[in-house]
Amino acid sequence: MDLSVMFFGADDASAAGRPTKNADGASVAGHTAKYDDIMAITKAADRLGFTAVWTPERHFQQVGQVFPNPALLGAALAVATERIHVRAGSLVLPLHHPLRVAEDWAVVDNLSRGRIGVSVATGWHSKDFVLAPDAFADRRERAWRDVELLRRLWAGEAVEFTDGTGERVAVTSQPRPHSPVLPLWTTTSGSPQTWEAAGRMRTNILGATIGQTREELAEKIRRYRDAYEQAPEQPGTPPRGTVTLMAHTYVGVDDEQARRSVGGPLKAYLKSYVAQTAANKGGADGRAGALTEAQLDTLADFAFQRYLSWGSLLGSAQTCRKSLADLADLGCDEVACFIDFGLGADEVLAGLERLAELREEL
């Protein structure tokens, strides 16, 4: 099983302009320190042998406020590292013209000498779509359609689009990428239909352990494998797709120390995420926004205890070893270790060192 590092963002919006200390101990503005920490953690992950680093696309929210463009940040990470793969986890495809996606990621692919990957998401938060308001209603159909376009553009095929005069013109994406095939994932928040769609398109899949039982996840992986096997071949795709699962991760000295360290930050992150979900006009039913502070605390504590019981890598090396073995039995090929849910950079780096030792044992 491969182990990767995933950033998804836990940020205090009020701290954006205040000086803080980065991983090197220097005092810098809040968001500058966050980027310094991302760079330091990614360099450590590169040195320690992790497979990939994933950065998301988020807009206009507290959670993930420093991640508006995974290609832009990915270019910086590509030139600062030597072997780790640089991936978008995820790119909200309906917000972008597919030509722009092909161009941007071809740059990162060249800078990294072929170490990129892109997980395509349909998007979910209504506020994100102020960037492309007409794309919200049919965002799923647009995303699945543009996956095929991305593959054609990456391969160097001339594709027709409408130009500024309203005429149809054939366009070939430039620059040409370093890699002949674009490694693609499909991101799912848990819908069985998305798991099957990923299989039919013969993309890899990026999911998460949270929000579902072990049995539910096993069934979704089975459906994905069946759909992938029955789908027509796509040029350059492997005979078997990669199942990547995101899991909250912190390997502590022992279980007690790990739980003590992650309890406060993770519960605060969960409360912020609930608030973000409640503000989504495209899916919220208003109930989350009506919760009192005490109810939010109870909900966060319940979710935290559930993470400890299954689906996370929160605990001692022995506890995390058992969790990884369980995920491998489910059919997981790669764990994207979600590390920036509120811990300080020093704690993240220390946990990463212990996780690397565990990876070597496995």
Write down the CATH class: Alpha Beta
* Total helical elements: 10
Largest sheet: 8 strands, parallel, barrel
Strand content: 15-25%
Tell me the span between the first and last alpha carbons. Answer: 8 Å
Labels describing this entry:
362 residues, alpha/beta, TIM Barrel, eight-stranded parallel barrel, 10 helices, 13 strands, 44% helix, 17% strand, Luciferase-like_dom, Biosynth_lucif-like_mOase_dom, Luciferase-like_sf
Secondary structure layout plus pairing:
Blueprint: E1 2-6, E2 19-21, E3 27-29, H1 30-48, E4 52-55, H2 70-80, E5 85-92, H3 98-112, E6 116-121, H4 139-154, E7 159-162, E8 168-171, E9 184-187, H5 192-201, E10 204-208, H6 214-230, E11 243-251, H7 255-278, H8 293-309, E12 313-315, H9 317-330, E13 334-338, H10 345-361
Helix pairs in contact: 1-10, 2-3, 3-4, 5-6, 7-8
Domain Luciferase-like: 30-333
Protein name: MupA/Atu3671 family FMN-dependent luciferase-like monooxygenase
InterPro entries: Bact_Lucif_Oxidored, Biosynth_lucif-like_mOase_dom, Luciferase-like_dom, Luciferase-like_sf
